[in-house]
Design goal:
homotetramer, two-stranded parallel sheet, mainly alpha, Fumarase C, Chain A, domain 2
Chain lengths: 446, 446, 446, 446
Amino acid sequence: MVPRYSRPVMTAIWSPANRYRIWFEIEALACEAMAEYGAVPKEAAETIRARGDAALAAFSDADLARIDEIEAETRHDVIAFLTWLAEKVGPDSRFVHLGMTSSDVLDTCLSVQLTQATDLLLEDLDAVLESLKTQALKHKMTVTIGRSHGIHAEPTSFGLKMAGHYAEFARNRERLLAARKEIAVCAISGAVGTYAHVDPRVEEYVADKLGLAAEDVSTQVIPRDRHAAFFCTLGVIASGIERLATEVRHLQRSEVREAEEFFHPGQKGSSAMPHKRNPVLSENLTGLARLIRSHVIPALENVALWHERDISHSSVERNIGPDATVGLDFALMRLAGMMEKLVVYPERMMANVESLGGVVHSGEVLLALARAGISREDAYRIVQRNAMATWTKLGEADGLSFRENLGRDPEVVGRIDAAVLDDAMDSARHLAAVDRVYDKVFGTAS
Amino acid sequence: MVPRYSRPVMTAIWSPANRYRIWFEIEALACEAMAEYGAVPKEAAETIRARGDAALAAFSDADLARIDEIEAETRHDVIAFLTWLAEKVGPDSRFVHLGMTSSDVLDTCLSVQLTQATDLLLEDLDAVLESLKTQALKHKMTVTIGRSHGIHAEPTSFGLKMAGHYAEFARNRERLLAARKEIAVCAISGAVGTYAHVDPRVEEYVADKLGLAAEDVSTQVIPRDRHAAFFCTLGVIASGIERLATEVRHLQRSEVREAEEFFHPGQKGSSAMPHKRNPVLSENLTGLARLIRSHVIPALENVALWHERDISHSSVERNIGPDATVGLDFALMRLAGMMEKLVVYPERMMANVESLGGVVHSGEVLLALARAGISREDAYRIVQRNAMATWTKLGEADGLSFRENLGRDPEVVGRIDAAVLDDAMDSARHLAAVDRVYDKVFGTAS
Amino acid sequence: MVPRYSRPVMTAIWSPANRYRIWFEIEALACEAMAEYGAVPKEAAETIRARGDAALAAFSDADLARIDEIEAETRHDVIAFLTWLAEKVGPDSRFVHLGMTSSDVLDTCLSVQLTQATDLLLEDLDAVLESLKTQALKHKMTVTIGRSHGIHAEPTSFGLKMAGHYAEFARNRERLLAARKEIAVCAISGAVGTYAHVDPRVEEYVADKLGLAAEDVSTQVIPRDRHAAFFCTLGVIASGIERLATEVRHLQRSEVREAEEFFHPGQKGSSAMPHKRNPVLSENLTGLARLIRSHVIPALENVALWHERDISHSSVERNIGPDATVGLDFALMRLAGMMEKLVVYPERMMANVESLGGVVHSGEVLLALARAGISREDAYRIVQRNAMATWTKLGEADGLSFRENLGRDPEVVGRIDAAVLDDAMDSARHLAAVDRVYDKVFGTAS
Amino acid sequence: MVPRYSRPVMTAIWSPANRYRIWFEIEALACEAMAEYGAVPKEAAETIRARGDAALAAFSDADLARIDEIEAETRHDVIAFLTWLAEKVGPDSRFVHLGMTSSDVLDTCLSVQLTQATDLLLEDLDAVLESLKTQALKHKMTVTIGRSHGIHAEPTSFGLKMAGHYAEFARNRERLLAARKEIAVCAISGAVGTYAHVDPRVEEYVADKLGLAAEDVSTQVIPRDRHAAFFCTLGVIASGIERLATEVRHLQRSEVREAEEFFHPGQKGSSAMPHKRNPVLSENLTGLARLIRSHVIPALENVALWHERDISHSSVERNIGPDATVGLDFALMRLAGMMEKLVVYPERMMANVESLGGVVHSGEVLLALARAGISREDAYRIVQRNAMATWTKLGEADGLSFRENLGRDPEVVGRIDAAVLDDAMDSARHLAAVDRVYDKVFGTAS
């Protein structure tokens, strides 16, 4: 993910420094565990921990360069790190990584990084939820037109829109918690996962200290179905971002103008057209959603490794690991800020509700006719006829409102009272269930 | 999904007959609920139920043609069905669909179909799990070579391989249960989901009768993040199928020959080469996995509907709904049958273990040298040197085994006892933790 | 692709009858070629041709059932067909398929089917191009607002919009021609493609008769990079459909109302709201585009077959072959019809152009100030200030037009003549280059 | 793309310095063109060119910081650059960007960057082609087993394998040239592409100077179907890389050992198992192919921008532009190096050919029986029986070769001469057409 769409707090998780810090932690914890059951001298484990901690605390670009230098020869990243560590630790380094294989370190490290990233994403989701709840409570009874197919349907409230997105992001939070559990897994099982050279208690110890679960069967690697499920979840969340971003883009359209992204003092919308105020944040989020979604397929393709494992997943994960989490973190925080500052225009919303001459109340009139004993097919024909007559003359001098047209239709007049028709034109009906929905979504306190 | 890869039991769920049966059930239940709280006469609800049930029980191609005929005029599938139903029910049909919108019927029906499909898929997964468990128990101690990068690594057991796949499919079963919950949802909330014309109790009643949960906020449609999460899960399961299929394809390679798909009497492998016996089932599963995975992206793209909803998701779901579930059902049952009948060759496995002159034990020798006080770097150099010497002369007259080469290496001889070296060549070490893993995966009874 | 989105003319290409017809043609042509250079008796080739032609001409469900029956035993589709053919041809059938392998038949047949499908798609594209050209010529000078970010930018003509889509579909036609060339390839090279048992002249002969090119190197199969490139092209075309469909959906939005899909007499837009007229065709096309695009990834995954080939691509192609071509054919014809009948509202377009009080002319005013010697930064500030003042008061009693606001701004008044300002408010400027663009797109005759 | 998989020569194309250099070039060329037809004073154009060139030549981190600072206020990248440029150029800067819009600069710049990147990729492809040709010529007659389904089929030559991949990469080169043409396009057409404020001759001039074609209809942006087609092509090439990488991975499998990636002195294959030499380059390429393929879908999703354009494509392209080209450049160069140094083991290839007791010649025996007048069905049964008898006893003491089994089969003995059978066991037949194929692929000089 390019820096433009990255927050340092998330990129730091994927920095070499953090990676090496975690690698050492895994090795040091493993040594401690081995010392506990006698495979490694206690003093050696202590020396490794002390000197390693010091080396990592003082980790500098020079260390980075040294590791790269070793890797250039060995062509193996974990061996390069271990060799560097040996230079820092001294002879006791021969007790490091004893009976372990690189995957033990790499995969468990990835689990730690992904859980760190997920914890940040959970906070991001909380910020999005907070911004949506604020708008929902503020606009609980702000009447706005509901649209299906992009066509005015019936009135609803802007708060209900927000509540719907809130409910989706609340589901996304649950999904992310489940996804976190998928990848919060530790594997220290040695070559091809048989524990032939490393006691299973080491795995349990390291897992416990790192707040992870021990993998049931790790065929040297932690199975990639876990990571696939994780990246799928990020893709679902990204699509939820796209849905909300699309809503805002629509609301800000010049013909709609019901809401607008906050336009900063000094901001310029276009180099050529000074009048422009564009929904650039929500458009940007739409693109970011495409990117995050694009990581799903390679993550799924990573599942079918050959036999106990191959290494084809590695280059994929080195990219999509950071790209997906950094991108999603940025997108969620951008979304939270955007929704928090969203400028809403209730008068314009009401003007739009009324702009089609009342035909948006056709459904209630249909029901009134049905209640009056008219068949569905006849009632539909009558209402459709009056709605189309209204629609066709919208804005014209001889145009009549839907109510007026209905009032002149002989098939209507004899059958429904004028009061019933008047009542059918009232948007209040559409807010009647708002409380009930809010109770379900936000709890009774709302 | 073409018939070649379809089982009738699953395609039946997606047949017009089943769809109309469910549509009627939703409408009839809604009438019953409305009758309960007074919006519809009880007698009308009973008439609708009775005549509708009869019409659906007698549903024939003529009915299908009649519905198609009406749809050709109205260009609306639900209205076409309701009009047909009205012809069967008579005047009381004006109480059908009262205050509801098409999405109430369509989306709740899709939920019913997807839960029906999922219940079948759960049975399929059980069959796969059973076949894997059987092989795992049978070959718990069958020694085979573990491979990383496609290169012989260290011995393991064939049972452990099976246990690893079992554990993955057990996770997939858990995921599918969670996915079922995602889409087992009912929405009867009317236009733009405000319940303006339909009492929320109707939704609760119908949901309860259909074994679904009532949606929290349905903006006319059940939000598509639920379906996206569902199809993602199918994609993860498909990738698990691909992993196991890839394993079998590798094991059947002419150079490996450790296992083989059952070859039926009368079966022909190739029109040109009568000697061929090909792993066609697992190759086929590999392709099916690609197909099922390909449904994930359009499902994610379906999330961002415009405003309260548009209808762009419909054409997608009319295809991927059946394609993904029918395809996965077929694939899982094919996989279960394939694994159940898989022919395993333990002697060939052992021959392969031994085919590299013992270098697969290099890890244990490395540890032995480390225990003898040699640094990791020196020990590695020594072991690598002897392994390469062995490897290079494999099959040649003057070639020595890894054990023999080590026995002549002055850097080894002085430092490790011959008995330790002999012991390092023993595969038994790699099976020591099998019981422990089986306990985790299959429970103590294994 | 479900029947709902299928045209019989395209599905017929993928029917078993057409497939077997092509299989036979390939076998019969190969026999003729072999007869020509002596590998097969001329009489045998003639008998095969005559009896085979007759059998295919009389091909019935009974034949289909017989082939299925043989395949159930042999588990090999080409052998099943050859066995059935042998039953029809008699003893000379031993000269059929001589030295060939199934892939020779299957892959060459797929090439024939894909070229047949492509020829239909090219006709479809012509229909789309025709409908776009008609609208472009009709609305060459119909002023409409151009929008970037969904925000009114500057005026343009509706014809130019159409010309832009025309140019894209003209590019798509070129791409499809190139894609046709990719897959119009014949391979008759026997097992693993070495021509060990079949003279290369057979391939040349069959290719020539079928209007295909002979593959350079077919490793038993025609390499799947060709098919991947083909399905990519369909994905690009589908995305072009989505772009145009999205345009129409936007234009039909209730707040925009500049164009509308034709609404048929008797058509019903919603079961609950009789006033609804929805852009259901363009929404449907949006979904179909997602489907066709989804075939791209499995087609790319099909490229990396193992060694000389595996069979994992087969199940993918049995589905995406028909799905992508049938779906795209349906979508293109639906698009052509939709664009042909599109109802355009020029008055509404003009009303929208004027709806923002003239701020859409901010760019020209910016230039006028620059021409008057003001720096870009100052000019921008001045214009932006007046545009925002106009925008903020849109529709309010004390609101002024952009022209009015500019006329009162002391930083403007002293520097630009009123006539220049008036002139800047003229939309005619934006149509000045229309002729030039039309010449490039449609040729000078436009 | 992470630095690990990046070459500086390609990342430089995507650096801010190169981008700003191109932006300025476009603006300066546009000024020159405008000066030519009088819209801008010639002296101003010269000043802009001179001072701008100087500023860009001296471009430093301080300039980068200054541009970022302005963008932080204006929230518009092109305006930030223009403001910085104005600070360098002085008052004449008001003639910069006259009548243009940001997209003119951004899109034309992207075209320049993509063509620069493509030119590099074409060189990379040449290197791959060269490496493949070298191996093909060297191993033109190196007999190896051809495999379908991973099962030994019939002999072929290793050179033919290489020739097949060469032909695919030659096609990929053609495709990339076509893709280059797709995106080598310039647009300078102002807001919503009407040329209202900029003479079309400016576009022609700039296009000509930059070696691009002028876009036919640019609705402010260069239509994204062009870029979609471009990224599709990269996806096809990536899949070709995966196919070749998969071949190498298979050949290096421990049981196959027919070829091997070059193993460097000092290289270590595994931290735990010193005997390991893994095909890490080809595995890495497999993963990179997944990544590059994953850019195809977002590129396709970018096509359907709203109306004349939205900005959702921008965040996508800022990532996949560099990621796809940098990744593919790295992958191609890695592939070329890998294939150039590939270690091939002809003896092992021959050993594998012979490892199945001669059953790989079953096809020729089938033909011999057919020639002897036996029906296809009977001949198949006879040959299959003998092949299976051979296969089942492979490596066993009482096992017979295919030739031996045939020699004892009464259904064979009476019908085919022993000499014919002997001849059928000869691999030479399978190399007979090699010259012909080489002529087609490499030309007659090969």
